[in-house]
Each structure stands twice: as structure tokens, then as C-alpha cells.
UniProtKB/TrEMBL annotation:
<dbReference type="GO" id="GO:0008173">
    <property type="term" value="F:RNA methyltransferase activity"/>
</dbReference>
<protein>
    <submittedName>
        <fullName>TrmH family tRNA/rRNA methyltransferase</fullName>
        <ecNumber>2.1.1.-</ecNumber>
    </submittedName>
</protein>
<dbReference type="GO" id="GO:0003723">
    <property type="term" value="F:RNA binding"/>
</dbReference>
<dbReference type="GO" id="GO:0032259">
    <property type="term" value="P:methylation"/>
</dbReference>
<dbReference type="InterPro" id="IPR029026">
    <property type="entry name" value="tRNA_m1G_MTases_N"/>
</dbReference>
<feature type="domain" description="RNA 2-O ribose methyltransferase substrate binding">
    <location>
        <begin position="21"/>
        <end position="97"/>
    </location>
</feature>
<dbReference type="InterPro" id="IPR001537">
    <property type="entry name" value="SpoU_MeTrfase"/>
</dbReference>
<keyword id="KW-0489">Methyltransferase</keyword>
<dbReference type="InterPro" id="IPR013123">
    <property type="entry name" value="SpoU_subst-bd"/>
</dbReference>
<dbReference type="InterPro" id="IPR029064">
    <property type="entry name" value="Ribosomal_eL30-like_sf"/>
</dbReference>
<keyword id="KW-0808">Transferase</keyword>
<dbReference type="Pfam" id="PF00588">
    <property type="entry name" value="SpoU_methylase"/>
</dbReference>
<dbReference type="InterPro" id="IPR029028">
    <property type="entry name" value="Alpha/beta_knot_MTases"/>
</dbReference>
<dbReference type="GO" id="GO:0005829">
    <property type="term" value="C:cytosol"/>
</dbReference>
<dbReference type="Pfam" id="PF08032">
    <property type="entry name" value="SpoU_sub_bind"/>
</dbReference>
<dbReference type="GO" id="GO:0006396">
    <property type="term" value="P:RNA processing"/>
</dbReference>
<dbReference type="InterPro" id="IPR004441">
    <property type="entry name" value="rRNA_MeTrfase_TrmH"/>
</dbReference>
Length: 265
């Protein structure tokens, strides 16, 4: 075995033993390289080519991650998929950040996101992916009523869980108040809002609040928001999926800030 480290018996897995795995070469190598969420161990097919084997051994050794060489079919049986490309990583619980001043950037407006009760792993991962693509500084989630960051979420995020800061707090409404106290304007996404998104200035420090897929933002969160905004729609469907809405909101923030930056040049 390569890069062997002593396992902490108290280390908790990210989900059950059958659901704590990330697989695929790009996904696992990106996770190793970022070193934000370090795997507990790697399962690697014994028929892996020599060049890839050497690089994997090097990265695992640097991070003290154990490698187990197994038959290719064992990986297929483990993840119930043939898309593992001969590589799987066993993951511990995700290492959330704390809500603290360091989450707020200096020298430029903050761009934060508060998620209140996103429960679907695919939606959560897609939101994280959009947040990373459009430059969100940090995502804040609650300890209860919220989907955890799991390997399923990591796959849905296309690896963005390794690139964007995710903070977890006991109460997201209190976290929203904390942001407001530090000059961050809180904008809540609500389909019934009077204010149109594209008519709203988004160039100052802001936090986007996005609610549960079914019930939206709670009354308590709505009361804390400085303003509610809606995405303009022309169709008859009642509302957008939470992940799609998050992507549109993030895009509009980035669009306005890019135009503002260009105008100042």
C-alpha cells in the first residue's frame, strides 16, 4: 500500500459506507489536488497504466492517503457503475467552514449566498456549481433541514465543492442578520416579489437568499431580507427550479459587475 496513514477510528464517513465514494479520474484527482476535502483512502484498479499510477502514488503520498489496489470489477460492484475509470475515493464528512469575517473579501464588494432548506442533492450540487462559476465568495447553509455536502452533491457540482467556500451555521436567519450587520445587503428570491431582478442594482455587497424547493424562503428569512426580487417569466409554469433560479441570479450579479468594471476602465 502507498501513502498509508493511520485511520482515526472516530472519523465519520460522508454518508453510509455504500454512499461515501467519489469516483472517476477527474473527480478524484481534482479532490486530491484541492486538498480541501481530503479522502480517507483510494481504491485503484490493479490494471491502471504505469504513468497514471505513478502520478496517483505521488499525490497520495504527499497527502498521506492510503491506496488499495483491487480488481477492476470490484470497483464496478462497489459503485454500481462502469464510469469509475478504475479509481474511487472514500470520503469523510465534508469540512464546512465557520461563518467569520474572513469570508468577506477586502477591496471589493462581497458576493454571498444563503441557502435555506435545499434538500435535493442534485439541486444543491447544481447551485454550488453555478455559485463557483459566477464567483460567489461563500455559500452559507444551515445545520438542519438542509442537504449535506456528500459525494452525490460533489458529482452534481462537477467538483465545484472543492473550489468554493461552504459555511454551515446553526441558524441561517441569524447568519443573514450577521451579514447585514456587516454591510451586506440581503436579497431574497421570491416569485411573488414586485421587484424585477434586472431592475435591481447588484454591484454593492450582497447576499442572495434562496429557499426550499417547495416552500421557498421562510417568513423569518423574508422578514430579514432588505429586498425581494423575482426572475421575469413569460410562460405559464408557476416557477423555476431552485437550481436554475440560482444560476440566473448569479449570472445577473456577475453581468452587472462585469459591466460596471468595464465602464470604470
Amino acid at each position: 500500500m502507498v501513502g498509508r496513514r493511520r485511520k482515526n477510528p472516530k472519523t465519520r464517513l460522508s454518508g453510509s459506507h455504500q454512499r461515501c465514494w467519489i469516483w472517476g479520474r477527474n473527480a478524484v484527482l481534482q479532490t486530491l489536488a484541492s486538498d480541501r476535502w481530503r479522502p480517507l483512502s483510494l481504491l485503484v484498479a490493479d490494471r491502471t497504466e504505469a504513468t497514471f499510477r505513478a502520478e496517483l502514488e505521488r499525490q497520495a503520498h504527499e497527502r498521506e492517503v492510503e491506496i488499495q489496489w483491487v480488481h477492476y470489477d470490484q470497483l464496478t460492484d462497489r459503485c454500481h457503475s462502469t464510469e469509475h475509470q478504475g479509481l474511487m475515493a472514500m470520503m469523510p464528512e465534508y469540512p464546512y467552514s465557520a461563518l467569520e469575517e474572513s469570508l468577506l473579501p477586502t477591496g471589493r464588494p462581497a458576493f454571498l449566498m444563503v441557502l435555506e432548506g435545499i434538500q435535493d442533492p442534485h439541486n444543491f450540487g447544481a447551485i454550488i456549481r453555478s455559485a463557483e462559476v459566477f464567483g460567489v465568495d461563500a455559500i452559507v447553509v444551515g445545520e438542519s433541514g438542509q442537504c449535506d455536502v456528500t459525494p452525490h452533491v460533489a458529482r452534481a457540482s462537477a467538483g465545484a465543492v472543492n473550489e468554493v467556500t461552504i459555511a454551515r451555521v446553526p441558524n441561517v436567519v441569524d447568519a443573514a442578520r450577521w451579514m447585514r450587520d456587516r454591510g451586506v445587503r440581503l436579497l431574497g428570491a421570491a416569485g411573488a416579489a414586485e421587484r424585477n431582478l434586472v431592475e435591481t442594482t447588484l454591484t454593492a455587497s450582497i447576499a442572495l437568499a434562496i429557499g426550499n424547493e417547495g416552500s421557498g424562503l421562510s417568513e423569518a428569512m423574508l422578514a430579514v431580507c432588505d429586498q425581494l426580487v423575482r426572475i421575469p417569466q413569460v410562460g405559464r409554469t408557476e416557477s423555476l427550479n431552485a437550481a436554475v433560479a440560482a444560476g440566473i441570479l448569479c449570472y445577473e450579479v456577475r453581468r452587472q459587475r462585469s459591466e460596471s468594471s468595464t465602464a470604470c476602465e
